[in-house]
Amino acid sequence: MGALLNWNISFVFVFMCTFYCGVFSSNSYHYKQQHTCKNVQKEFQELNIGDKSLVPDLPVHVAHLAVCHKGLHHPGQRLCCNNGTVDKYHTAANKYLMDSLHSGTAFLKKFLMDKLKDYEMVFLYRCIIDVLSTILTVVFLYRCIIDVLSTILTVVFLYRCIIDVLSTILTVVFLYCSIIDVLSTILTVVFLYRCIIDVLSTILTVVFLYRCIIDVLSTILSIAILHI
């Protein structure tokens, strides 16, 4: 990429310099009799390459120029070009190339930025969906845990109710057994009392009979004594 960029810069640089050198050469030959570089200065300034003062007023020969001409190969050639002009040509060529690259890649840059925004939106949307999904999963699990705990509490409550019912039943049974025992005791006492009453009644009956027999015997003895 760097080599390609350097080659493009060199190509544009050489193209512009060749173009301007051709113009300058033409102007130099055209105004050879006047010995002036006014047209070159005018073009130099109008094209915003640099200040016209960088262009010589009269065509000159400068050796070792890398762009306008090869001084060593053309020792007698005079052009409206010097080292300062060459530097400005080089700067202008670089600017032209960079502007061309920027304008040529503006669409690609916009395309990439739009795709980046789309990716960011999709990524953000996906993150929101994942967060909501996680929240729903947590809520669902929380609900399941609540349902399980509710079921456990219901079972415990029912178990407690059953225990209370059984306890009540056992209490009732215990009271019933206690009542039965009391009644049994009462009945036993009543039975004993009845037996005692019967025994006493029998004794009284015997005593009464004994008394009657005594009375009868006493009467008989009295009558016997009277007859004697």
Automatic annotation (TrEMBL):
It is a lipid-anchor; GPI-anchor. InterPro entries: Glypican. Pfam families: Glypican. It comes from the Eukaryota. GO terms for biological process: regulation of signal transduction. Its main location: membrane. The chain crosses the membrane at residues 6-25, 123-142, 148-166, 173-193, 199-226. Keywords: Cell membrane, Glycoprotein, GPI-anchor, Heparan sulfate, Lipoprotein, Membrane, Proteoglycan, Signal, Transmembrane, Transmembrane helix. It is found in: Cell membrane. One of its GO terms (cellular component) is plasma membrane. Signal peptide: none annotated. Belongs to the glypican family. This is Uncharacterized protein. It comes from Lottia gigantea.
